[in-house]
Specification:
This is DUF1636 domain-containing protein. It comes from Aliirhizobium smilacinae. Pfam families: DUF1636. The protein is α+β, with helices and mostly antiparallel strands. 26% of the residues lie in helices and 18% in strands. It has a single domain, classed as Glutaredoxin. Strands 2-1-3-4-5 form a five-stranded mixed β-sheet.
């Protein structure tokens, strides 16, 4: 096992989900609050999500930047074999909804986050991008 693979396995174990992770929630920890403060709201969001995701097939990890700064704080869902999503305008008040959405993605057999039943903070202007999995193939419309 490479050092990098061992580190990833240790990170998953630290999240309490070794081998059972279906969705990783990446939280941007770089953006600061609109004021000229040092506060980085993504750090608090990530900590709250880690606690809320305990015992679920979810991992929560920091990421330096999701290039979604105008919608900070931001998070991304990455399904192990399905779609990925980027969301913005999140807060610690959305933690339960974020976990609900990540679980919806984890439980969908296609690795797709259905719109029906999706929490409001993960719809409309809250969603920035939906990214197909690498193995996705679709015919061009005729």
């Amino acid at each position: 096992m490479t050092d990098e693979a061992r580190k990833d396995e240790n990170d998953a174990t630290a999240d309490g989900n070794a081998g059972d992770v279906d969705v990783t929630i990446f939280v941007c920890t770089n953006c600061r609050e609109a004021t000229d403060s040092e506060a980085r709201p993504g750090i608090g969001l990530m900590q709250a999500l880690k606690q809320a995701a305990e015992g679920k097939p979810l991992a929560v990890k920091p990421v330096t930047c999701l290039a979604n700064c105008d919608k900070s704080p931001s998070a991304a869902f990455n399904h192990r074999s399905g779609w990925s999503y980027v969301f913005g305008h999140l807060s610690t008040g959305n933690v339960d909804d974020i976990v609900t959405g990540a679980m919806m993605l984890a439980e969908d057999e296609r690795g797709f986050l259905p719109l029906r039943g999706r929490p409001m903070c993960l719809r409309g202007k809250g969603m920035t991008a939906r990214i197909p999995p690498f193995h996705h193939h679709e015919d061009m419309p005729s």
